Amino acid sequence: MRIYRIRKFPTKLVIFIILLVLIPLFNKSIPRNLKHFTIELLSGPLRALSAGTAYFKNHKYLSGENLELKQEIGALTVQLLRLKEISNENERLKKLLKFKDGLRYDTIGARVISRDSTDWRGAFFLDKGKKDGIKERMPCTTIKGFIGNVVETEASTSKVMLITDPNSRIGAMLDPSRESGILTGSPLGTCRLIYLSLDAKVEKGDKVVTAGYSAFSIKGLPIGEVAKTGVDSANLYKYAIVKPYEDLSRIEEVLCIAVSANR
């Protein structure tokens, strides 16, 4: 394809040529008809020149104005997205506060500030630590359900091991059967409730809650529901694949429960 370049309109040159033609017309010796004919002949190019000059000036002005408008729209879009994020955060915090008021335990609210780069699905870090009252083994929950325990604490930060971590071990039980077992994580980022008796009544959709066996755990916190059941390869016990109520990859705020303060 041949590309044509549009050269800059030679405005000054055209004006100069027209003036050279017009100046002699002021000579009285030139017939009036010839003057009239010449002026009429040049009026077309003059009008075109005037229109072209106005167009280019106007186009340049509009281009600059268009750029300014685009910049303003971009800034307003960023501001709108920020306001939307603030509104969503306020809504989440309101729900978390309402949930907190319904608990009979002291709690400490915290924000998720980062994920463990070596274990993205298994742990994250909070913006609260020892100076805020966070202690190791504290259970953590959202408004949807239990999500893990504090395993490390620093002065201003702490680390939470999620129930999907392969090293996680939580006492849990089925509802309504009350059959108990151990909830573990897996490398695939799922949960398994193991060591259920072979005659346990467990069905898809059954609720799973915390069993509250240790001094640092609470009984009855919702965890998730049974998605699938099976029997281990050695035929020693039943197990259940558990789908957590909370999407653990999208958590932004949690409540750390101060169990020991109430016992």
CATH class of the largest domain: Mainly Beta
Mean pLDDT: 77
Distance between the termini: 83 Å
Low-confidence parts: 1-9
Q: Residue share in helices?
A: 25-40%
Alpha-carbon Rg, integer: 38 Å
SSE order: HHEEEEEEEEEEEE
* CATH architecture assignment name of the largest domain: Beta Barrel
Beta-strand proportion: 25-35%
**Count of distinct structural domains:** 2
How would you characterize the largest beta sheet?
A: 6 strands, antiparallel, barrel
User: Could you state the oligomeric state of the chains shown?
Assistant: single chain
Shape descriptor: elongated
What does this entry look like structurally?
- By secondary structure, the protein is α+β, with helices and mostly antiparallel strands.
- It folds into 2 domains: 10-102; 107-262, Rod shape-determining protein MreC, domain 1 (Thrombin, subunit H, Beta Barrel), CATH 2.40.10.
- Helix content is 32%, strand content 29%.
- It is built from 2 helices and 12 strands; from the N terminus they run ααββββββββββββ.
- It has helices at 11-22, 32-102, and strands at 106-115, 123-126, 139-141, 146-153, 158-162, 169-175, 180-185, 191-196, 207-210, 222-231, 238-244, 253-258.
- A hairpin with a 4-residue loop joins strand 6 and strand 7 (180-185).
- Residues 1-9 have low confidence and may be disordered.
